[in-house]
Amino acid sequence: MRRSVKPLTTRATPLLRALPLLAAAACASGGASTAAPPVEATRTVVTSTTPTIPDIELNRDTRLAVHRTTSTPDRVWAALPAALADVGLSGGPMAGQARTYIALMPSVRRQLNKVALSRYLDCGTTASGERGADTHLIRLQVTNIVEPDPQGARVRFQVLARATSTEGSGGTTDCATTGVLESRIGEALEARLRNP
């Protein structure tokens, strides 16, 4: 029950390497878009060495999303932990980074706050048609950076997730965001800003 992971394109974006990308994107941003273009695209095939365990194939990209609001950065920063909790995320400020909040869920399965993980993540599809986000154990990290904006403030999001087989094979797959989680955080944040 051993799986081999064969990345066809190898570009990793661990959090510490991704933060400079977020900072650079912050300086170059303009307009009111909710998601920046993909900064990475990969195709990965997870091949099983056991015939009873299906292969997973996926294409993914990593997106940086932004939510703009007319509230001040201080108000947004104060409301952010409660907004994250409203969608089922918890975490804390990142040491040494101004207004950077890391929500980390080391082990999530099937749902996040009663919402199927496949609404938020694309972790591939098994040969039997099941979505990897709904069948695998997910490690989820959402980086949230609050910055000043000409109209008030903006929050930049980066969702990183990795799926691990629950069948004991140890195979892992990087997941892509669908953009829905970032939208839900933005909606929860606006609700918290309206009703503190």
Automatic annotation (TrEMBL):
<keyword id="KW-0732">Signal</keyword>
<feature type="signal peptide">
    <location>
        <begin position="1"/>
        <end position="35"/>
    </location>
</feature>
<protein>
    <recommendedName>
        <fullName>ABC-type transport auxiliary lipoprotein component domain-containing protein</fullName>
    </recommendedName>
</protein>
